[in-house]
Write a sequence for this structure.
C-alpha cells in the first residue's frame, strides 16, 4: 500500500467517532430536507385546491342550517332542548326556539340586528353618523 493510503486509514481509525457523527448528521439533514420537499410538493397543491373549493360567501341560512345539523348530530343527547325529541320535529322549530337555544349557549340575550342598529351592533360608523357628529 502507498503511504497516502496508510496515512488515510490511520486518520480514519483515530477519528472514527467524529467521522461517524458527521455522517449521521449529514444523513439526518438530508432526510429532513427530503421530507420537507415532499411535504411541500404534496401540501401546497392540496392546500390550494382546498382553498379554491371553499365557498367565498356563506349565507346566514346556510350557516344556521350547518350549525343546527352539527349540534343535532353530535350533541343532541348532551344538550337538552336542542335535540329533536319525540314531541317536536324539524318543521315545528321556530325562530324563537333557535334564539332561545343560542341565548342558552351564549348565556345572554341575543341582540336583534336590523337596518336601524347595524352600526350600533357592529360598533362602526357610517358616513351619515360621522357627518352628523361633525356638525
Amino acid at each position: 500500500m502507498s503511504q497516502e493510503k496508510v496515512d488515510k486509514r490511520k486518520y480514519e481509525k483515530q477519528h472514527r467517532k467524529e467521522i461517524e457523527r458527521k455522517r449521521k448528521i449529514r444523513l439526518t439533514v438530508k432526510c429532513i430536507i427530503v421530507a420537507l420537499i415532499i411535504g411541500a410538493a404534496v401540501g401546497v397543491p392540496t392546500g390550494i385546491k382546498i382553498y379554491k373549493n371553499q365557498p367565498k360567501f356563506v349565507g346566514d341560512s346556510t350557516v344556521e342550517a350547518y350549525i343546527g345539523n352539527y349540534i343535532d348530530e353530535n350533541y343532541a343527547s348532551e344538550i337538552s332542548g336542542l335535540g329533536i325529541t319525540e314531541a317536536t320535529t324539524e318543521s315545528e322549530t321556530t325562530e324563537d326556539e333557535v334564539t332561545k337555544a343560542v341565548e342558552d349557549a351564549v348565556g345572554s340575550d341575543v341582540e336583534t340586528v336590523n337596518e336601524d342598529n347595524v352600526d350600533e351592533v357592529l360598533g362602526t360608523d357610517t358616513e351619515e353618523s360621522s357627518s352628523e357628529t361633525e356638525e
In short: Helices lie at 3-14, 16-53, 60-75, 95-106, 118-122, 127-134.
